[in-house]
Design brief:
The protein is mostly helical. Helix 2 packs parallel to helix 5. 66% of the residues lie in helices and 0% in strands. The longest helix is centred in the last third of the chain and has 19 residues, at 133-151.
Amino acid sequence: MKLIVAILILLLSLPVQAGTWGVGHFDNDEALDRSSDWAESGTVSGIRSALDAVQNATYVEAPEAMTALVAAEIVAAAAGRPSPDLPDDLSAWIALQSRSELTALIPSAKSAISKVVSPEGSELYELWADVDQTVQLKWLAAVRDLSERLAAVPSSDEP
């Protein structure tokens, strides 16, 4: 019984963001909901809109930032640089889309990522800055990995 109480106290003392259970881009409810929506009925225009919403915002709210990271993951996957965590249903949906239409969004994806990791103007960055620094660095590493996968796309794949 003491062990159970100790575990509960430990779990309750950890900082938690609602709906988030990891630092990966598919480790939160917002991302999974959005990716499922796109996999079921989304269009490439939905991906474009998610990236544009972040690019055009003065201050990026956390849900929009998470959605933009998922959109950037879709663009990276279409360019042949998928995340190992890409949900199967989303991967199947990407395979049915126009590769050129998605890879044309690489510059928008790169720009959106830059805004999401900006200490000024990104609620998602602020939320990760409020957790343990080790965890924040893991999140930043996940974002950096996405950026590097997009940067590794040969320029002939970009418009």
